[in-house]
Amino acid sequence: MPSALKLDHAQALIAHPNHQLTRYIRQYLQDMGFGKIIATNHSREAVKSLSNNFTKLVLVDYDLLEFGGPDFVKFIRLCDAPLQEAAVCVTMTKPSLEKVLASRDAGANEVIALPLTQATLSKKIINALENPAPFIRHPAYTGPCRRRSTLAEWGDIERRKD
What we know:
Layout: E1 11-15, H1 19-32, E2 36-40, H2 43-50, E3 55-61, H3 69-78, E4 87-92, H4 97-106, E5 110-113, H5 118-130, E6 135-138, E7 141-144
Parallel strand pairs: 1-2, 1-3, 3-4, 4-5
Antiparallel strand pairs: 6-7
Helix pairs in contact: 3-4
């Protein structure tokens, strides 16, 4: 469990259609120390719950009813509130390169393949909360930096501007 994080006043949102998995994740987040955990199986309910309090972590299923996965992540990243910088993890039952890239390009911090283990869940959530990538605000993209590795020596023109 992360020790450096103060989560007793933080809110987490689980937006997933699988009730059994939602209960498992809820218990894990309670053990982590989250003060409030909201669980829903529908995107409209998830959006309503986001407007109530500051949400530090969002777990959303790629195939959530109405709009899930990348669309839900884009909605969060376009909010004009602290919610914009919340850690977002997208879960998916059949990961593919296309789905993972779509989630990443929408602004997800982590992608979690299902079925999951506690070790995987722990690793992904802790990484999203304790080691977030630098946050980028640009007209074409808002979210954590999509670059996953750093090059030891870059010999070309730097395209990223401050």
